[in-house]
Write a structure and sequence with these properties.
The chain is α/β, with parallel strands linked by helices. It has two domains: about 35-345, Alkaline Phosphatase, subunit A, CATH 3.40.720; about 345-500, Arylsulfatase, C-terminal domain (2-Layer Sandwich). It has 17 helices and twelve strands. It has helices at about 1-25, 25-30, 60-70, 80-90, 95-100, 120-125, 160-175, 220-250, 280, 310-315, 330-335, 380-385, 400-405, 410-420, 445-460, 470-480, 500-505; strands spanning about 35-40, 70-75, 130, 145-150, 180-185, 255-265, 280-290, 295-305, 345-350, 360-365, 370, 425-430. Strands 4-3-5-1-6-7-2-8 form an eight-stranded mixed sheet. Strands 9-10-11-12 form a four-stranded antiparallel sheet, with helices on one face. Helix 7 (about 160-175) runs parallel beside helix 8. The relative contact order is 0.14. The model is unreliable at about 1-30 (pLDDT under 50).
Length: about 500
């Protein structure tokens, strides 16, 4: 009798627990309502944020977002220039898979207009979709957002961060009960690095307050002024993020919204934007998913912005297109240990337009980084835009000859390698995180180099990279160099030949 009563009590307790679990309102709301998805995308900034340990950053709102969500320590973009990077997170594909291998303003585009992407996939499943800020991917018709406001790049910051928040508030209010997807693309911290505008930031820093990022390699008063204003841009960006998230809170929709914050690539300083060095490819990535993600985590797994689309689709219970190379981040967000995770991360550049043309691939694991240059010993025009004042697109945040003269011999040698790269570079990121010492010719690292070369070729084969074929490399470069006069920009129907030849090559099995 005692045992029967005991079991009856246990059964009743179990039934009560099951009833409460099944009928509790939070669970019903999560199951019944697909999550809203908010992408917050900033321009040209790496991990120079307080939550990533930067000593000069004034980023309290992003730091708070990291404390409320999950911060990814080793997050990267596949290509460190705007248009290709954006095409990657919008399509979930590598640049050579979607075709956007250069800047949209220079006629580069995706191979075709019907590649499934964030907008078409969510929109066809009942989501209201919106974009605030630039798209900068061709063709724009491939991304049929329901609403698109503040359409330009806004590099002069004519529209303020308050304007972005107001547009977001209007979008939140217009959703009419439908799940929504909104991408908000802030112009900071793109050049020009504006010290203060529209009263922001309230307390700008100056060159006496900062030092250049350690991967830049040069520290002069002229460069420190650029770095200081870069940090001022980040402070203004942070205020914009705070205003945006405040509007989300006021809309009452925060609890059912997944927030992804990330940079589109690293900062525009030497060995940053445009390169396959860590300074160009490594970005901040913060994900807040209330009641799902474990807040305050720091994950060190290798992650990529191509992971954002498959994560969002899985969260919305939408079937992903086949053969997406990205991974669903949810196991990391909920603080589990997935049975497997990626071993390697891929990077790529073409230089993004003819006057900066140079092709490179990179592949890194959790310690070592390989850089592959299929045209070794030739001039890296992209490096010239940072190191050569005679370059037609020399950037103000580059290193002049006078700046370079102050660098030590290790940095000067690294600049020389960057300017005319060898066939391979190899870096031990554990001992040399800023990639100063090339180990590619060190016999002690020959086995590691061989392993990474094989892994890179394997990835190129699996993802059908046209640049695996040297003929495609040479023909692409030849056409780019033949168009350095940039007259194509005024030709209405101009189309790069790779847009025809690469799809044909990719179709071959």
């Amino acid at each position: 009798m005692y045992r029967r009563n005991k079991y009856e009590k246990l059964i009743k307790c179990f039934l009560r627990f099951t009833f409460c679990l099944f009928y509790s309102s939070p669970v019903i709301s999560i199951a019944a309502t697909p999550p809203n998805i908010l992408l917050i995308v900033s321009e040209d900034n790496g991990t120079e944020l307080g939550c990533y340990g930067d000593p000069y950053a004034q980023t309290p709102h992003l730091d708070r977002l990291a404390s409320e969500g999950v911060r990814f320590e080793n997050a990267f973009v596949p290509y460190s220039v705007c248009s290709p990077s954006r095409a990657c997170f919008l399509t979930g594909l590598y640049p050579h898979q979607n075709g956007q291998i250069g800047l949209a303003t220079h006629k580069f585009a995706t191979y075709n207009s019907d590649i499934p992407n964030f907008v078409t996939l969510l929109k066809s499943n009942g989501y209201h979709t919106g974009l605030i800020g630039k798209l900068h991917v061709n063709p724009e018709s491939a991304f049929p957002f329901d609403t698109h406001t503040i359409r330009g790049a806004n590099f002069n910051r004519k529209q303020t961060v308050t304007d972005y928040a107001k547009e977001a508030a209007a979008f939140f209010g217009a959703s009419k009960g439908k799940p929504w997807f909104l991408s908000v693309n802030f112009p900071d911290a793109h050049l020009p690095f504006i010290r203060k505008i529209n009263g922001r930031p309230t307390k700008p820093v100056s060159e006496k307050d900062v030092k250049p990022m350690p991967w830049v390699g040069v520290n002069t008063p002229r460069l420190r002024k650029q770095v200081a204003n870069y940090y001022n841009c980040l402070a203004r960006l942070d205020e914009g993020v705070g205003l945006l998230l405040s509007e989300l809170d006021q809309s009452g929709q925060s609890d059912n919204t997944i927030v992804f914050y990330f940079g589109d690539h690293g900062a525009q300083f030497p060995r940053g934007k445009g390169t396959v060095y860590e300074g160009g490819l490594r970005v901040p990535l913060i994900v807040r998913w209330p009641r799902v993600a474990k807040a305050g985590q720091v994950r060190k797994e290798l992650t990529s912005t191509i992971d954002i689309l498959p994560t969002a689709l899985k969260a919305a219970s939408i079937k992903a297109p086949t053969r997406l190379p990205g991974w669903d981040l949810k196991p990391l967000l909920i603080n589990s240990r997935p049975p497997q995770w990626r071993q390697y991360l891929f990077g790529f550049t073409t230089g993004s337009f003819p006057r900066n043309c140079f092709i490179q691939h990179s592949l890194r694991d959790d310690r070592y980084k390989l850089i592959s240059s299929p045209r070794p010993g030739t001039e890296n025009l992209d490096a010239g835009s940072y190191l050569d004042e005679a370059h037609p697109h020399f950037v103000i945040s580059g290193a002049t000859a006078k700046d370079q003269s102050t660098a030590n011999e290790t940095v000067k040698q690294a600049f020389a390698i960057w300017s005319r790269p060898p066939r391979y570079e190899l870096y031990d990121l554990q001992k040399d995180p800023y990639e100063w010492n090339n180990l590619a010719d060190d016999p002690a690292h020959a086995e590691i180099k061989s392993r990474l070369i094989k892994a890179l070729i394997n990835l190129q084969e699996r993802t059908r990279d046209p640049f695996l074929d040297q003929k495609n490399v040479d023909e692409f470069v030849k056409e780019q160099l033949a168009n350095r006069d940039m007259k194509y920009r005024k030709q209405k129907n101009f189309r790069w030949s790779y847009l025809e030849t690469f799809p044909q090559w990719r179709a071959l099995e």
